[in-house]
Fold each of these.
Amino acid sequence: MRTAQLIQASGLSKDTIRYYEQRGLIPEPQRSSNNYKLYPKSTLELLDFIATAKQLGFTLNEIKNTLHLFYDEDLYCDSAIDLLKNKLMEVSQTIKQLETQKKQLLGEIQYFKHKKSNK
Amino acid sequence: MRTAQLIQASGLSKDTIRYYEQRGLIPEPQRSSNNYKLYPKSTLELLDFIATAKQLGFTLNEIKNTLHLFYDEDLYCDSAIDLLKNKLMEVSQTIKQLETQKKQLLGEIQYFKHKKSNK
DNA sequence: CTAAACTCTGGGGTATACTCCACGGTCAAG
DNA sequence: CTTGACCGTGGAGTATACCCCAGAGTTTAG
């Protein structure tokens, strides 16, 4: 699979793919004689794995430390569950903070409504 | 008020204050003959205003575009309310996305639990 | 053979909100 | 007069996830 195909199949830009390569998220592809990159199918699957993980809220760094799950999912159910649970707690925590922010915003709105009615 | 006092009273670092100055969030202070900065009291109040706005989720850029509220709060109740409502919607939107993320995470956890029990 | 399309690389730019460093001037105490 | 605290400046660095550009080799169609 050449670069153009991978771009097309993954929906990612060449720069994103290159960036993932540089960050070590996907392995360096082989080269053909003209130095063009040749990706194995697994890279496409890996990119899907990465996309899913991103959607779940994982950063690229976190995903990088999780690649063993992609390569041997069956072996690491427990650690997968741990990672997911941790992220779940993070997300819940963030939601809580935002709920607090919401309350404060509502309070401020009330304050200005009150002030306005006193003009 | 000199720099040290403002740092002390605001709880911000010298670098943060300087940064706010550069960004135009607080006005350039006067200088004494030795070139030391001399802040008026209002700057401290302004820093408190900024801190509050930050807590409500506003970025420094947004805050900068909102400074007229600080300088003439009474005149702009309506626009204050608009700004707050917009931010409220933003926050609510973010919360929704995170709730979705949470559901997906729970789904993934179930998936791995299931997979594990089948080993 | 030439022009267009494809590919590679290195390196700079973006947004956010600061922090940290180093160099140098100023001031007060002893 | 010197030492240490205080103050100011410019500029680099941090984290995240990319985007964009330019220069140059390669390949393919006509």
Note: The CA atoms of residues 24 and 64 of chain B lie 7 Å apart.
Amino acid sequence: MNTLESSNQLINHLDAPARKLILKHSDELLLSTGTVLGQPGDANEYVYFPMNCVIALMLQQNEEKGMEICLVGREGMLGVEAILGVNESPYLILVQNEGSVLRIATEQLMKIIARHPSVEQHLHLYAGVLMQQLAQSSLCSHYHAVQARLARLILMFRDRLHSNTMQLTHGLLADMLGVRRVGVTKAAGALQKRRILRYARGHIEITNEGALEAISCVCYATDKATYDTNLIE
Amino acid sequence: MNTLESSNQLINHLDAPARKLILKHSDELLLSTGTVLGQPGDANEYVYFPMNCVIALMLQQNEEKGMEICLVGREGMLGVEAILGVNESPYLILVQNEGSVLRIATEQLMKIIARHPSVEQHLHLYAGVLMQQLAQSSLCSHYHAVQARLARLILMFRDRLHSNTMQLTHGLLADMLGVRRVGVTKAAGALQKRRILRYARGHIEITNEGALEAISCVCYATDKATYDTNLIE
DNA sequence: TTCGCTCTGTTCGCTTGCGTACATCCAATG
DNA sequence: CATTGGATGTACGCAAGCGAACAGAGCGAA
């Protein structure tokens, strides 16, 4: 990897001096699936920019009730609230797919932000986008059926991994959607019967992307549009 | 009203020079119930600081499916995304309870933010708090029963109005919760039977606050704690 | 006073998802 | 090769909320 480049879209979008500065002050870490990057109440000491891994922010009400609030990959960052000045976050931060991240101390990033308005602007814009996506998720989890939400979630993984295959069990997907494992098995089974997915023992392959997008709820397209409109020029 | 004071908590928290500046550049508007302050796609031209009115951000998927995403009163502001640089918002912005707001041009507020780090810090912190509350709402609308969510919503109105009585019909509450009017009637009826509420034709009175808080979902307390921890010293 | 509109109460069958339990099947490990 | 643990398939009754429809009740306007 060239030190002036990164596989993270947010960082790549910055001008060269700023990007260089961030890379200089950050470490590259390899995270394996299942790693707990943070727990409710942990201080927001670091900010992470995923490169090729996928990280889920899980909000738990108790042992039984919990759900994925935000799925972060190369398109985003982890620690938005930190750069807005919030010290602690309520999330269980789970690495759902192994890969590397750039880690930078929040304090350090704040200094860079203070000196580089372009960095500040872009990251704040990302925060704004995230807020709209959170709002959309609220509506989604309330109204949309498991199958549509499952389709959306799988597509989100695809986008973040740039791959039509992924390692995810029904159980994990159920945890993220906040539904029973059985519910995912049923929905996924229906999709497999229609040859839209193929899966076995934790390995999932999308075999018909178009159909999967058609089945996913609007929220998938809405989120994408929100991101693209604001963050891609 | 003293020109150096405001009934809005965010503004009141600022240091005197900053507060004075904001008040100088803002207009006070009286908004009546039912006013549409903005629609999906509208430019974020102004930022509003409610003083004694309550404003709901509604996200609509279509004519039938929609819900309240955020309820704003004297404790907050309307236009957080704007100060993060987002130009448009997807919300239908509805005045749910008449009262006055301070309105300031986004551009003007941005200038003040640029010159007053304390303002920037406080408003960004509010943005961070809002993100956590949005996450909580996502979990809430997915898991919690109508009655608990109704209790929470009524308590949120109480807090923003500083009053145990309010003007709200079952239909309006249903729209905000994203459920049928009948669902609200049932839940509210049960609460009235237990002498926790009293209501008639759009007028609601809380007659047992403690019980109402006990019935409301955790999200009410969680949101409050998030706000207080971050924004009250 | 009467009409009309809004607000509230109640009912119907229906669908989705829940909680639980158990059966099967595959892969890794010894 | 046999065992074991994780992943998936299927079934059951149950509860919450849905969509639709209609009835009564109160308030304001004519």
Note: Chain A touches chain B at residues 57, 59, 61, 65-67, 69-70, 80-81, 84-91, 121, 124-125, 127-132, 134-139, 141-143, 178, 218, 222, 226, 229-230 (CB under 8 Å).
